[in-house]
Amino acid sequence: MDSTPSPSSSPFDLVSSALGRYIPSGGAAAAAGPGDAQGDRTTSRRAPDNAAAGRQDQILGAVNLDRDLRISRCNLDAPVFEGLDAVVGSPFVDLLPPGDVPTVTRRLRQVLETGEAHVARIQRLRRGDGSELVVSLSILPAAVPQEGLTVSVIAMARRLHLYAAETAIGTSLDIGETAQSLAESLLAWGDVAAIDLDFAVWTGEGVTEQAQGRIRLRRAALVPDRAWPEGYVTPGDDLPSDASRLLAQAVRRDDAPQAIVIPDREAVERVLGSPRVMRALVPGDRSAGVACIPLVLDGSPPVVLGVAEVWRRAGSPFRDSDLFDLQELVARTAHHVDLARQHQREHTQVLALQRRLLPRTGGDTIEIASVYQPATPDSAGVGGDWVNSFPLPDGRTALVVGDVVGHGLGAAATMGQLSMEARALLSAGLAPDEVLEHLDKTVTLLDDAESGLAAGYSALGSTCCIVLYDPVSHHVALSSAGHLPPVLVSPDGHAGPLAVRPHPGLGAEFALREPFDVHTFGAPPGSLLALYTDGLVEDPALSIDEGIGRLADAVSTVHPWDALPQAARRVVSALAPARQRDDVTLLLARMIGYRKGDTATWRLPARDDAPARARAQVSALLRQWRTRDDTLDTVPLLISELVTNAVRFATGPITVRLIRAGHGLLCEVGDTGNGRPRLSRGGLLDDGGRGLYIVHRLTTRWGVRWTDTGKVVWAEVAR
Q: In three state form, how does the secondary structure of 356-392 look?
């Protein structure tokens, strides 16, 4: 053993000092050096008379490694470690089975590079006589100024192994990680361990009694990590249908879940039958016997979530005690698999809703690209960040970004409700500030004592920003409820956040509530607008203003002919912190607008001759645009009815606007009235409402939106 004294306390010294009670003074002095020998002798004087028996029970050891992963110090003097050739200067991986070398080496390098410990890995170590010792391996970074690693080794007694395995398996809600932890724990009883789960577990669906022949198993975990024979099922692969059926029938004998053991190679070949099933299930020529243990979810009747397989080589038959231990471990941990299944179901639902809300495409007047990046891959990291963009019936485009408080299904449900409500209200013609007023009331309603707080979730303080882009006037109208300001990049490359007055979030206390403002900004063709959530710009080392400035700098580098999806991903990768604490969401919108030749606007006085003047001007423009004959007849009639309605029920000037968009024509008539036109089916001799009935029959859709000075009635006609 190395006798070099340690200059300071290190993980190795701490573990070694814990051994002093049981290791003889000579062994401790050899392991820890002269500086620690006195401490060991002092401890030994306090040891009981049955110290020899204590030494037999000792299960803790320590090994120090240098940066080349060679043993520099060693304290494996307890009798349980006898036969391990831990020689100073030799590679640590010499103690490992060859198949485990790549995985353990990767873990050692990872701790060496990151400084983050890897704790409680169930591992086998090779003795000189070829036998193996099952241990719990923890890899710790050496204390500064020392370099290298300290590996603590705990020889696994049966009860301690079961406890440690169950503890390790319950640390993750990811199905793959849970299955991997279970397989690693089962490896203590065999040479190869595999976990095959019902496909419904992977999708998060409810697992129920299923008819034979409909069983579908997918491999979730396989240890050790090595090259496997061709045709063998590895993680992520579905088992062949006949293999799934055989395993399901094996563990459900007499319609009750039971563990089975197939003791030798001949029996395995006889039971599995076809060469195809043998290639899929048998891990190699050396594998002789297998124990199959069902993962059973208690219930009436019990439900089988999957099957755990433990394979052994010839000459190592399964004893009754082995099978009992395997059943106990799998039974203790089956509920962790079901928890992961439920978590996966919630995760799938949240992501489906989140992706449903992500913008699909832009249109002829605007180009859209978005990126959503959850903080973690599980549903606990899927929060309430959302972005949406959609064309409004009147030709404008709505851009909405929000951040709902919290994570998981509760936040996702609120997110979906607010998003759909915002879309419905905007499509109905409400202004952005009016929409936020409704969302504010909705959040307050969701959080009342009966509905919100009873569910254990509060959305108070959620934020939202609504932007409406008018492709004719090339302006954006913006209202915000506590959200960070969008960043606008002008065609000349100047970038900066829009000047938006701060406002409390949705559902603020009554004393804090203020009217929502509408801010209007110019956005000429070629402008780029960035909407985002705080996860993209928040950094503990920077102020929020500096974070927004970094975003403005990054967005300003997007060239007008850059593909927007790639540009959005590039901005996120440049700004998103390496260790995300929150979801990251970004929406980029490139303004295109209508060409001047595709729009025309007239202002007419509210007089009786206004309909005739409007018909004449519209007819002349349609002939210039060379529209179809039926459109040439329909649109002037439509404009005439809308103008007549405006003259009859409103005051002030009338604005007529015609827009050529795609395969349709958008007709708009604005006035200073605030009454809502309503469609009614009048009688044969009743004039009231018949004008709008004609509009309804001539158009593909029509509606109303309100402005600061009145309203606009719009209608769309195919051309």
A: HHCCCCCCCCEEEEEEEECCCCCHHHCEEEEEEEEEC
pLDDT of residue 44: 33
Tokens found for residue 300: 């009436």
Q: Is this structure's pTM higher than 0.85?
A: no
Phi-psi bin for 408: left (phi > 0), alpha (psi -120 to 50), beta?
left
CB atoms near residue 696 (< 10 Å): 13
Lowest mean pLDDT among 139-143, 153-157, 282-286, 539-543: 153-157
Q: How many CA atoms lie within 13 A of 291 on its CB side?
A: 27
Q: Sign of dihedral through CA atoms 451, 457, 458, 459?
A: negative
Q: How far apart are CA 282 and CA 231, in angstroms?
A: 10
Between CA 93 and CA 87 the distance in angstroms is: 12
Retrieve residue 151's tokens.
């590996």
Which tokens is 624 given? 């210039």
Strands of 519-522's sheet in order across = 383-391, 397-407, 463-470, 475-481, 519-522
**CA 570 – CA 576 distance, rounded (Å):** 10
Q: State how far the alpha carbon of 542 is from the alpha carbons of 547, 549, 573, 578, in Å.
A: 6, 10, 18, 15
- Mean pLDDT for 689-711 is 78
Between helix 175-186 and helix 158-169 the angle, nearest 10°, is 170
Cα 256-262-264 angle, rounded to 5 deg: 175
Rg from Cα positions in the chain: 36
Closest CA to 203 of 194, 216, 193, 212: 216
Contacts of 78 (CB under 8 A, 6+ apart): 19, 22, 23, 55, 58, 59, 60, 61, 155
DSSP letter at 294? E
Give all strands (DSSP E) within 427-583, no chain letters: 463-470, 475-481, 487-489, 495-497, 519-522, 528-532
CB-based contact 137:123 (threshold 8 Å): yes
DSSP 231: T
Q: What's the DSSP call for residue 92?
A: G
* Burial (CB count within 10 angstroms: exposed 0-12, middle 13-18, buried 19+), residue 327: middle
Composition of the chain by helix, strand, coil, percent to 5: 40, 25, 35
SS3 121: strand
